[in-house]
Structure formats: C-alpha cells, structure tokens
C-alpha cells in the first residue's frame, strides 16, 4: 500500500500548466510545495530547541489541478492525501539523482480563511469585497447547478 497524508503550508504559489490530449481536451497539472512541521524539535547544542520542517513537492492532475490553481496560494494550510512516487533519473553528467514527489489524490483546507489570514506567512487575498452570498461563517453558498463541476464532494 502506498498512501501518505501530509498537513502543511504552501511554500509558494502553485504552478499550473495545461497539457493537450489527443482528443483535444486539456488537463491541468498543478505543482506546489508544502512545508510540514516536525512534531519534535532538535536541540542544536547551544540555543536550545530550533523548529524544523520537511518540504515536499506535490503534483495534482485534472480537476484537482484546477482546484489548486483556483484556491491555493502561498501560506495556505492544507491536508494532502496521495501516494509517494520516485522520480529518479540520470543527469547529463551521468550521476544518478534520487527524488520523490507526492501525487495528490485529495486536498482539503486545514484551517478557515480567517485563521489563515491571522497566521504568520498566511496568504493575503485580494482586497475585493466579499461575495453577496457569503455567510457570516466565511463560507460561500454554492450556486445552483454547479455541484457536479466541483472537484470535491
């Protein structure tokens, strides 16, 4: 079984590009990186404890890639469920390079929009006014008829 769950913050805005398939359809490929805090601190021997994090490169395909493009920004805290994939290759100098990436199968927000704005490093959305159909709990009502177009259920 190859299944991984990670919770962390995006280290930068995602990069999304679209591929052209043989039948003319486009598929989104969203690439992003998340920083995952470790549950323990390492002692550096002088100043006590120092916070550490691990960084993971993630890729989302299709509707999930479109979700990444539309909703995720640097600093957004998310939970990513997916699988680990080796991306080993030989570089032009003949040296073997080892790397892994997370292929995202599910992505969920790990905090509310208000909490992400208060957190250090949280993203700052544009200064546009709130949508008319926004409720006081920071959730927006889903318009009729688009339920099947959402990347999540």
Stretches where pLDDT falls below 50 for ≥5 residues?
120-131
The major sheet is characterized as: 5 strands, mixed, barrel
- Mean pLDDT equals 81
**SSE pattern:** EEEEEEHEEEEH
The strand count comes to 10
Could you say which overall geometry the principal axes of the C-alpha atoms support?
Answer: globular
**Strands of the biggest beta sheet: in what spatial order?**
1-3-6-10-7
Computed CA radius of gyration, to the nearest angstrom: 19 Å
Approximately how much helix is present in the residues? under 10%
Based on secondary structure, the structural category is mainly beta
Distance between the termini: 24 Å
Count of helix runs: 2
**Strand fraction:** 35-45%
Task: Give the helix/strand layout.
Layout: E1 4-10, E2 15-20, E3 26-37, E4 42-43, E5 49-50, E6 53-61, H1 63-71, E7 77-86, E8 89-90, E9 96-97, E10 100-109, H2 113-118
Parallel strand pairs: 6-10
Antiparallel strand pairs: 1-3, 1-7, 2-3, 3-6, 4-5, 7-10, 8-9
Description:
With 153 residues, this protein is mostly beta strands. Helix content is 10%, strand content 41%. It has 2 helices and 10 strands; from the N terminus they run E-E-E-E-E-E-H-E-E-E-E-H. A hairpin with a 5-residue loop joins strand 2 and strand 3. The longest helix has 9 residues. The radius of gyration is 19 Å and the shape is globular. The two termini are 24 Å apart. About 8% of the residues have low confidence.
């Amino acid at each position: 079984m190859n299944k991984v769950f990670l919770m962390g913050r995006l280290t930068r805005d995602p990069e999304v590009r679209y591929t052209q398939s043989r039948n003319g359809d486009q598929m989104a490929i969203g690439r992003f990186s998340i920083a995952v805090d470790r549950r323990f601190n390492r002692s550096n021997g002088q100043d006590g404890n120092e916070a550490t994090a691990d960084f993971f490169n993630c890729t989302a395909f299709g509707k999930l890639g479109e979700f990444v493009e539309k909703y995720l920004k640097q600093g957004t805290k998310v939970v990513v469920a997916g699988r680990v994939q080796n991306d080993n290759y030989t570089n032009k100098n003949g040296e073997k390079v080892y790397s892994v990436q997370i292929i995202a199968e599910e992505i969920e927000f790990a905090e509310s929009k208000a909490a992400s704005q208060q957190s250090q490093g949280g993203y700052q959305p544009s200064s546009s006014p709130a949508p008319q159909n926004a409720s006081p709990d920071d959730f927006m009502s889903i318009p009729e008829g688009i339920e099947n177009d959402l990347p999540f259920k």
